[in-house]
Batch of 2 targets.
Target 1
Amino acid sequence: MFLFTLCKTPEVKKAPVVVVEEPKKVEQVVEKQDPKLAFLESIEDGRELPDSDKWKVEQYDAFNEDTFPSYGPANATIDFAKVDYPLLNAAIFYVTSKERKQLGLRPFKYSERCEQAAFGHAQDMVTYDFYSHNSTVNGKETLRDRLDLVGISETYSAENIINAFGIQYQSGRPVFTPVQNGGPFFSYTKAGSPIPNHTYLSLAKAVVEVWFNSPGHRKNILNPEFNYMGAGAFFYKDKKFFDVDKVKAVQVFTAKP
């Protein structure tokens, strides 16, 4: 049997929570980016979010943190071969916003630009195999760089990241691996019932719970200075551990849209 724990891994220590950033002056941003504009226009920066037939940007006006959990597609089991990223991003947004509301704070306002920055960083962390607030992609090294790319400037900002399991693993429980089971699944008993995949809503609750139980991440979520938020996530198979399905997820917070 093997034992792995949910999200609270040494990896988190390698990526401390981003300290709230002071806004830069527009002149400084332009001066910094001018020499690289041609290159920056060619990189994947998250501005093109995937299409979805289950969730459109307009639906953020139709749902709130109280009504979203009853939305049928949000409770569907995730197919890792065809993840509906806009729907997952929305689930993370609403679960996070509900935590704020329950503690007497104003719920977040949705920001498509924050979502673009968050999704782009999540995608980059998977594509280029890193886990950090500091990107290895030229032109996107810092959160400030990534916000500049999507058109957000002159505002305070912060970012939460997480590396989580896509299956509904219960932290601290030993598991049998696909090799031990003789099949492509993890289980708590040998060749027993496979540990099921998360639903969109249950995965959102799992990652937000870990963030909320971490003082630095919780501080970002509950910071009253932040009015806007967008979330992004990207799946991958962890080749270091029997190709278990995992997700790297990101929250981006700003004071202004």
Target 2
Amino acid sequence: MNFQILYSLIIFCLAFVTSTYAAISPEIYWKVKLPNTQIPKVIKHFLPQSEDDIRELKQDKTNTKEKVYYGLHQHGILVYHVATEDELRDIKKEIPSKNEFQQVTEISRARSDLQDDFLYKPYFLEKELAKGKVINLPSFKNKNDAPFLSRQFVESIPFSLKKILEILNHFSIDSSSKDAQTIEETIKFCEEIEVKHKEKKSCATSLESMVDFSLSMLGSNNIVAITTEVQGETPMLQKYTIQEVQQIGDGDNMVCHKLNYAYAVHFCHVGGRTMTFAVSMIGADGTKVKAISVCHKDTSLWNPRGLPFVVLKLKPGTTPICHFLQDDQIVFIPSKETTNYAI
């Protein structure tokens, strides 16, 4: 009984602290709200370690730090718009000229056994997740080093197209630069998804808001947070051999994809019933990957002219479509849905 009273008192105190926006760290916030799962390394690595770190991240005229952080791939968010020529160009094989065709190079030999018109397919069917299957994939390391900032700090900065000039001025970004265009595109994407799409989604501008959204969407704090794990430095593209496939979830989950921005912003969405797999693979160079793959059972809300349907030549809502997650994307799964996945 005494333990229950003490526990209740602790929870009450923490709730009071949270509600009054006291200066508790994002890491403590996670531990209080999601006590049954560890913070993934890819999150912990980008948390500010002290108030000095936060002050250092406040961009000014003399700061030479990177203004906007970019990742390699954002396939998880490409289902909502019409596939662009740039997106297709990134994954298609180059068609060599007659002179180039006569030259036998290492690249041409490596590509000779690729199917269709693609170097690799960012989307695939569940049957492709089979032991012994050899697939071509780019790096699982997304390279987006954007740091998490505290909720108190990011809520003092606008995140709206109406305030785009104020945002650019805050981070000392030239309005005619590529960084400015990226800032605008990310904010526009985040504002459009609230209006145009029926999936439950949000752009989390802090770790605290990501945690809150996961709790509201999944309805429990008994949640497992998992990410892709990479052992080694992967090249941009190589062959991987699947060694083991383990289904770790079958039901609603939430996935958060890191966006290109001046600090850590994640597009989080709950896309209906999904199957989640942990896929152990080894690359041609010996790189070991335990990749997370999500298969969406219902694709009826995706753009019919989006990249998944162009690649697979399918129509929305006809069959589950799968994709892998890079190592900075987080999957939140109710623990009752998971099997014996080792975090």
